[in-house]
Design goal:
alpha/beta, about 300 residues, 11 strands, 14 helices
Length: about 300
Amino acid sequence: MVAEVRSGLVKLEAELSSVLFGQERVIRELLATAIAGGHALLEGLPGLGKTMLARAFSEASGLSYRRIQFTPDLLPADVTGTEILEDGAFVFRPGPIFAQVVLADEINRATPKTQSALLEAMQEAAVTVAGERYPLPQPFLVLATQNPLELEGTYPLPEAQLDRFMSKITVTPPPRATWLRILREEPAPPKRVEGLDLLAAREESRQVVVSSAAIEAIANTAQLAQEDKRLRMALSPRGAKAWLALAKSLAYLAGRAHLDWEDLRAAAQPALSHRLLLSEEAQFEGITVEAVLQDLLRRTVAK
């Protein structure tokens, strides 16, 4: 059963790689997030294929898909849905959040109030409108794209919302060889992977064995982050569990029954980079989150 479920994921990964050229790391991190039951924040300059990847993932997975374009005038009810008067009674009309794969496109172009409308859906897999709770279809995955904050007309995501994304996946421009392929070749439409079962994969990935040393490594990193004066926000328990879950999914995708240090190292960047917030002094000195994270991992290994 394990081999059968995982073979579907291997086919899905190959299908996505035939759509988005040269972004194997991005695709692997996206699949790991979906298997772990989390949500992903895709960050990168416009035109790198973030929206294409989200749509291809839903089509190849056979999951329902809705796209929400976040703009400054988008209201919370435009996301969750609202009640309307129909034949003398109020009837709930679901918003675009009611899909298995929801693309929140350019999420940081909406105001914080509208961004927060996603919080309950992402955390609880349900929304509450007029006192009524409405569950969302499963599996449920929010893929949000974010433009770099230095671009005009963007709002930083609230810290509470950042922490609800299991991963932040950075999409970078491809190498030169991939540029040539992009210019010469049109990607084929994604084919649906028959028999794919993300919920079964989620259950199987939870069975990946984690050693005491791996647990201690996460705890040591969290402690080092708490003591680091370069950070004004360190690793939360939710962030630590997200790191572990993502690492287990990466081990599962690699076909291993045991998690090792390389899985934790590979999961650290997408799981932690948006949760570690620099102090003002560190920002002034030009220190980056990536540099702090690598330093924390190095000191964890040496501990």
